[in-house]
Every structure is written in structure tokens, then in C-alpha cells.
Structure of 1,2-phenylacetyl-CoA epoxidase subunit A:
Amino acid sequence: DDPQQLARFEARVAADDFIEPNDWMPETYRKTLVRQMSQHAHSEIVGMLPEGNWLTRAPSLSRKAILLAKIQDEAGHGLYLYCAAETLGVSREQMIDALHDGSAKYSTIFNYPTLNWADIGAIGWLVDGAAIMNQVPLQRTSYGPYARAMVRICKEESFHQRQGFELMMHMVNGTPDQREMAQDALNRFWWPSLMMFGPPDDKSPNTERSMRWRIKRDTNDDLRQKFVDATVPQAELLGLTVPDPNLRWNEERGHYDFSPIDWEEFYAVVRGEGPVAQERMQARRKAWDDGAWVREAAASYETKHASARIA
Ligand code: 3HC
């Protein structure tokens, strides 16, 4: 990179300027944004599958309508983020191919199965709760199109979290069996939700540069701690027990202390060994193939009408 251009770029980022698609940017800035934004988009799209599994089995029409609205939002978030990533010169096909050939990731959390209806509550409450912690700071990420996409997405994310928490409140105030289902869902989703924030800061190859270039505004561990501090009181309000015997409020630190995370499990799931990872990728490849006719029809319609417009 040209040292003067780089100095100007770093001064702009340090002054909290937004970098726009036509601005000069270091190739590594562009590359790491394509990496993060496309994987963020993949997470939104793959994230529709665990909840879709329960759409036809929702316990009431209103629960079904709420879940349908949420899943529809996630699709929109994914498409929004693919469009924002395309401003960096990457095509939709390239991003989808990377997902399908395994070279691009999606969030580990979506490789865990949804075994019953309480999981839908735990996902809204914990997974979307973690997503909010991680996405609110991204509204001030230095890349303009990404920051603006986040503003819209964060508004919808808070509805996702609230409906999940409210679903859990219903379950804990229901029959003993429903209460037990809510506790079991918390037991299975607590640790994978903490892993959503990524590896510890000292094991994160991207954090130092992403913080310097203000792609990230907080580190993985800071956001994880914020999530634990905000969520433990919610679990107490629900009368549920967080599955961590070492969890306790540390007055000095002003934060909760919690047990070490099983990073072996995290890296195994990142490698694609999660419980339902195969099913998720098969479902996405099938959806892409089944949707080919729609893309072809839209493209031929566009060609036909574009020539009519020129004529
Ligand atoms: N799942 C899968 N891969 C993960 C991961 C996770 N939970 N956490 C980290 N990784 C990967 C990173 O992608 C990186 O691999 P790569 O270089 O091949 O991309 C590697 O592990 C090292 O992690 P780093 O901390 O160095 O990587 P980042 O600086 O990119 O930090 C991140 C990871 C915090 C997830 C960051 O990428 C980020 O903030 N992304 C945007 C938000 C996002 O994608 N959230 C995922 C959930 S979206 C969601 O939940 C939707 C909601 O509606 C339900």
C-alpha cells in the first residue's frame, strides 16, 4: 500500500470517519471486511434453519406468526449484508460458493439442534441477545455500508430477543414439565452462546487489526463479559439456573466471574464438526439448487425488459 494513502486512511478511521465504497482503502481492510460481512450474512441465512424446524409445530397461531416474522427478518438481514459486502467488489455467487465449499464460515451456534419448543425461546433470548451485544457496536464500524446495515438490523434484533425472553417466561410459569424444558434449553444453549463472541482476545488473529481499523469497536472478551453481566440477572428473573457452578458476582471487578470455556468444542464446531453441521450445509445447498429456476427467470426477465427499455 502507498504509505501516504495508508497514513491518510488511518487518520480518517481514527477520526471516526466512515469509509465509503469508492474511497481508497488498504487491500487487507477490504479483504477482512469481505470475510467478516459475508460470514455475518451466512450466519443470518443458516440461522433460519434451526427455527424453521419448529415453524410448522408452533404451539399456537400467535407463536407461529411471531416466529415467521422473526425468520423473515433474518432472511432480510442476510440479504442486506450480502448487498453491503458486494459494495467491496465481491459477487453474490462468490460468497455463496465460499459458504458451500466450506471456505467461509457461519456462526458456530447454528450447528446445534433445536430439540423442542423451549429451544426457540432460548435462541431468541440468548442467541439474539448475544447478537445484539455484538451488533450494536457494529453500528459504528468504520465501513459505511456495514454500519448503516447494522442500524436497521439492530432495531429488528431487539424484537427477536424480547419475544424469546417472553416465550421463556411463559414456559417457566407453565407446568413443571415446561419449566424443566426451559431449564434444559438454557443448559444446552448457554455455553454455545458464549462461543458466538469468538476466541479469547489473545487467541484472536483478527482482533488487533480490526480494532485498529475500527471494524470492531470492542474485543471478543469484552462483549462476552457484557453479555454474561446482562443475561445472568435475566436468568434469575426467570428462576432458571445458569449451567456454570463457578458463576458468581465479583464486586471488585464489577462483573460476573465464570468458568473457562471449552475451546476444544469451539474449534471443533468451527472446523465443521458441530452436531448438525452436515444437515445445515445440505439444506443450504439444496435451497440454492431448488432456487436456481427463480434466479434464471429473474435474469431472463431482466434481459428481455432491459432490451425493451433500450429500444
Ligand atoms: N463461529 C464461527 N466462526 C467463528 C466464530 C463463531 N462463533 N467466532 C470466531 N470465528 C472465526 C472467525 O471468523 C475467524 O476465522 P476467519 O479468519 O477464517 O474468518 C476465527 O474464528 C478467529 O476469530 P477472530 O476473533 O480473529 O475473528 P473476528 O475478528 O472476525 O471476530 C466475530 C469474530 C466476533 C464473530 C466477528 O467476525 C463479528 O463480529 N462478526 C459480525 C457479527 C456476526 O457474524 N455474528 C454472528 C452471529 S449473527 C447472528 O447471530 C444473527 C442473529 O440474527 C441470530
